[in-house]
Specification:
CATH architecture of the largest domain: 3-Layer(aba) Sandwich
Order of helices and strands: EHEHEHEHHHEHEHHHEEE
CATH superfamily of the largest domain: HUPs
Number of helices: 10
Strand content: 15-25%
Bound molecules: pantoate
Number of strands: 9
Radius of gyration: 19 Å
Shape: globular
CATH topology of the largest domain: Rossmann fold
Largest sheet: 6 strands, parallel
Strand order of the largest sheet: 1-4-3-2-5-6
Number of domains: 2
CATH class of the largest domain: Alpha Beta
Structural class: alpha/beta
Helix content: 25-40%
Oligomer: single chain
């Protein structure tokens, strides 16, 4: 496995090894990330992972400085998965000058996560477009855990005519249902025991939807109340359409229930797709 730091090295090593499948990450890799590597592997002659903690997508009060950085362990995991190239640029390689050109996502990028993390999707879209231009992959893999991010990236690829096929990896969960996330490491033991409640709450909304309940606003409000009752600070629970994350009508069947809530000082997100029976 090669570890490259510059765009020039990356391009030189990828040029003779296409098609390339690319998995962008911010490191601190867990089983969820490794599953994305396994998804990219069969599509590509060369499997590339990037590790770059992107300052542009963090708000001023967010955890950029403390975001877990575990480069050695990450590389060991990537090598075990048969990753061919790790692109781990320094910040000055990705942002050699102040980033004046920014990729502005459509208005859906200001809802849900975007409403609570202003500028987050602009930071994500900008770095993902830059990383795509650096690696020029034929395939790129993103996890459904960050459902809205996946949708924003898919929309960018479609609307900007990027010749890249986006593959979506299923969320990997602990045995108790908690979605794997780098930020789970922030949870104290008692919080870790409580954390699966977010998934359970979203699953309960899904069960009600399958049961035929159509009052989406009430289902959302009940879920927020249940989390608040259990001493969480919920940002939102939302029933949306899978395709574009817009609010569903009564005849829409391919839905996703998304939620974000803080437990102590740790903010967790999760989502569950649900297909309603006819
Ligand atoms: O999902 C992530 O880890 C990041 O948002 C990404 C896609 C690597 C961009 O920095």
């Amino acid at each position: 496995m090669e570890i490259v730091r510059s765009v020039a090295e990356l391009r030189a090593c990828l040029a003779p090894r296409r098609p390339v499948a690319f998995v962008p990450t911010m490191g601190n890799l867990h089983e969820g990330h490794l599953a994305l590597m396994r998804m990219g592997r069969p599509r590509a002659r060369c499997l590339v992972a990037s590790i770059f903690v992107n300052r542009l997508q963090f708000g001023p009060a967010e955890d950029f400085d403390t975001y877990p950085r575990t480069f050695e362990a990450d590389c060991a995991g990537l090598a075990r998965e048969g990753v061919d190239v790790v692109f781990a640029p320094l910040e000055r390689e990705v942002y050699p000058e102040p980033q004046g050109f920014l990729v502005a996502p459509p208005p859906i990028g200001d809802e849900l996560e975007g409403a609570f993390r202003p500028g987050f999707f602009r930071g994500v879209a900008t770095v993902v477009l830059k990383l795509f231009n650096m690696a020029q992959p034929q395939f790129a893999v993103f996890g459904k855990k960050d459902y809205q991010q996946l949708m924003v990236v898919r929309t960018m690829v479609r609307q900007l005519n990027l010749p890249i096929e986006i593959l979506a990896g299923e969320t990997v969960r602990a045995a108790d249902g908690l979605a794997l996330s780098s930020r789970n490491s922030y949870l104290a033991a008692a919080e870790r025991a409580e954390a699966p409640r977010l998934h359970r709450t979203l699953a309960e909304v899904c069960a009600q939807l399958v049961d035929g309940k159509k009052d989406f606003r009430k289902l959302e409000a009940d879920a927020v109340a249940a989390l608040t009752q259990a001493k969480w600070r919920p940002d939102y629970v939302a029933v949306r359409k899978q395709a574009d994350l817009q609010c569903p009508g009564p005849d829409d069947r391919e839905l996703v229930v998304l939620g974000a809530a803080s437990l102590g000082s740790t903010r967790l997100i999760d989502n569950i797709e649900v297909s309603l029976p006819r």
